[in-house]
Amino acid sequence: MPIYFNEETKAFKLDSSKSSYVFNIIEGNIIQHIYYGSKIAKSDISYFAVAEKHGGVCPIPSFVTKQYYSADVNKSEYSCCGTGDFRTNALQIRTIKGNITTDIRYVSHKIYKGKPQIPALPSTYADDNEATTLELICLDSYSGAEVTLFYTVYENQPIITRHAKIRNMSSERFTIERAFSSCVDIDDTGFDLVHLWGKWAKECNFERREPIHGIQTIASKRGCSSHMHNPFVALVSKDATETVGQAYGFSFVYSGNFAADIEKDNNDCIRLIMGINPVDFSWTLDADEEFYTPEVVMAYSDCGIGEMSRAYHKLYRNNLCRGEWKQKNRPVLVNNWEATYFKFDEIKLYDIAKEAAELGVEMFIMDDGWFGKRDNDKSSLGDWFVNEKKLQGGLAPLVDKINALGLKFGIWFEPEMISPISELYEAHPDWCIHITGREKTKSRNQLVLDMSRKEVRDYLFDVMSAVLDSANIEYIKWDFNRPLTEIGNDILLPERQKELPHRYMLGLYELLERLIKAYPHVLLEGCASGGGRFDPAMLYYSPQIWTSDDTDAIERIGIQFGTSIVYPASSMGAHVSAVPNHQAGRITSLKTRGDIAMSGVFGYELDLCKFTDEEKEIVKKQIIDYKKYAGTVLYGDLYRIITPAESKDKAAWIYVSPDKKEAVLTYVVIRTTIYMLHIVKFQGLDPMRNYCIEQTGETFRGDVLMNVGYKFPKRFNDYETVVFHLTSID
Ligand code: DGJ
Fold it and tell me: Does ligand 1 have an atom closer than 6 angstroms to the CB of 412?
């Protein structure tokens, strides 16, 4: 069993494929965290926990007789506030009397095969033979809060997932003010904090820093996981690189406000808690009601950051994404957004599609601007019926014609939004999130629908279904282009207003679930002005997400690198766009743009009709090549060889198929310098196999490519790329 309970010592030991996680029940039924790290054989390591030092100023609970315990300094499994643990706390409950001291103690536990679903929330899933779950049932006898801590251990993956359930066992209501999903206390033996910060069109910048004493918080309170901070943090050992050292990853399966507090205390212990951001959150439970936190996925590697990423990629591909497209190569698409923006009609769209079909593209996506009276971003969100001025005769004739070209057809929606200039707003001005009496702050001229309201969700389901039923639509791009402000509605009681951001998420997830159940063949692509909601929760519904609104090939190297720290290539939309690039103004070759976009879910986003004959030949070849590489790129193992975190001048990465018979290497020179060395030491290959490089016809053994490396016998210009496709000839 990967989860052991030692009756005698009251030690729990949770073993994933590479890690052990240990805690003990000590005096007073306190749950004392002991160890998380590389796998160990012994289950009783309680000797490690008993000698926490404190200077006598720490509160000592009256139950302590044998052990030297204070909540102030000891490691906690799920820290509560008010009894002497003054660090950042995972749980805080306000009772009806108004006090917030919270103190949970172990009561009982259950260990069973498999993994339960979290009601109404997205989460990873597992068969009974893949995972084992521990439910640790605890009680705060004063408030009557029963807290169940869930731990699922994936036996063959270095993964442990966590979430919590809080149930009101008393007859009086109480309010949850903080309910984090995970809490880990680790001695700081020399860690750096890694996180992915960003902004619109520059998401997922990799940042690595030594934690300072005090709390540093990586968080969003924008109502979405956000461009600014991805819901992910890692602690990595000082020596950690892509290939060596320890990495503890924490990834939050949630698309709303989140927080990860990383607190280095005065005894050099790091507490890391992750969960729903307590700012703008509370949840009131009446007797017998319960609340579930979303899931945190903890991945552990003792072989570097690269191995941690591969663990996330595998888990998210196999145990998070769902539906028909989960393991399939995705259709090469063309999207009209950067080709036409709002200015199109059915003739223009058909022209692009016709050209696309001739070049080998497989799906045409009609982006924003097809509905209501939408000629710019000032109106019509919510009016999800066809603008017949642009598309005469409606959708079906256009879709039929595009299908007749051999292309699938996809469509853009931004379901969660409403334009104040729209028929929907005229009919239902109260459907947006708002505080009556306060001015409504617009962003991109739009407001946000209140997804917590059933009538809103029903409207969206009906109106979207009507569109989907009206023609052969095989793809949806689900966009979300503004954060939430003036969060409130006239429905929830005053004491429940802070429930709205989470109720919004629950409503969104319900609608997504309803739609994917009703339209299982439709491929969903998430989007939030690019990567504003690139998180594991969205991957539960949409196996691919538009990575960034910045389509510049060189900017994309960093964005895709940062995103790949957690998310697999199969989840990252990546398109070739026009030059000069619309965001960065940079000019790169069509080859470079194609080579970089091929490290994700590949497509084009430009006016294909404007290509020269020579460019058309390049595109045809790119599509043939991508279809050859896609299986390896989307579902293989990624090894980041030269990363933007280490070098501003060049980058290299390789995808290796799980059987190691195939690989796709990309090498980019960003800025050339005199006598620059162009040597790439491959990774992840089978050392014993011989590989043929399709592009050069050369053959090398894996051990040679990995140890000696490949020396490119040429000079490179700025922005020049090479892609090598390797096939084993043994
Ligand atoms: C933001 C998206 O990220 C773009 O790709 C495009 O769909 C626009 N919205 C359309 O308004």
Answer: yes
Q: Which band of pLDDT confidence, cut at 50, 70 and 90, is reported for residue 48?
A: confident
H runs (alpha helix) in 323-446: 337-340, 346-359, 395-404, 423-427
Instruction: Name the superfamily (CATH) of residues 3-319.
Output: alpha-galactosidase from lactobacil brevis (2.70.98.60)
549 part of the active site: yes
Q: Please state, in angstroms and as integers, the Cα–Cα distance from residue 294 to each residue in 64, 118, 181, 185, 277, following that order.
A: 34, 8, 6, 20, 12
Could you give the CA distance from residue 173 to residue 97 in angstroms, rounded to a whole number?
10
The class that CATH gives domain 333-424+452-483+504-635 is alpha beta
CA-based nearest residue to 36, from 194, 149, 160, 130: 160
Q: Whose CA is nearest to atom 11 of ligand 1?
A: 368
DSSP 8-state symbol, 493? -
The encoded tokens of residue 660 equal 């190691």
Using a 6 Å cutoff on CB, does residue 336 contact ligand 1?
Answer: no
Find, among 231, 171, 237, the residue nearest to 37 by Cα.
237
Burial (CB count within 10 angstroms: exposed 0-12, middle 13-18, buried 19+), residue 703: middle
CA distances from 442 to 239, 306, 336, 457 (A): 47, 41, 26, 21
User: Ligand 1 pocket check: which of 336, 340, 368, 548 to mutate, most ligand atoms within 8 Å of Cβ?
Assistant: 368
Question: Is-contact 208 645, C-beta < 8 A?
Answer: yes
Instruction: List the end-to-end C-alpha distance of the chain, in Å, as a whole number.
Output: 39
Of 72, 185, 192, 479, the active-site residue reads: 479
* pLDDT bracket for residue 47 (50, 70, 90): confident
Task: For strands 191-199 and 290-292, give the pairing.
Answer: unpaired
Separation of CA 573 and ligand 1 centre (Å):
13
> pLDDT tens digits for 571-601?
999 999 999 999 999 999 999 999 999 999 9
Pairing of strands 523-526, 544-546: parallel
**3-state class of 468 per DSSP?**
helix
Boundaries of every domain in the chain = 3-319, 333-424+452-483+504-635, 640-728
CB of 367 within 6 A of ligand 1: the answer is yes
Q: What is the CATH number of domain 640-728?
A: 2.60.40.1180
Per residue in 241-272, pLDDT (tens digit) is 999 999 999 999 999 999 999 999 998 999 99
Contact 432, 421 (CB under 8 A): no
Residue nearest to atom 2 of ligand 1 (CA): 529
Burial class (CB within 10 angstroms; exposed 0-12, middle 13-18, buried 19+) of 363: buried
**Residue 52 pLDDT greater than 60, yes or no:** no
Which DSSP string corresponds to 397-418?
Answer: HHHHHHHHTT-EEEEEE-TTEE
The backbone torsions φ and ψ at residue 397, rounded to the nearest 5 degrees and listed phi first, read -60, -40
CB hemisphere CA count around 354 (13 angstroms):
10
Reduce the DSSP state of residue 543 to 3 states and report it.
Answer: coil
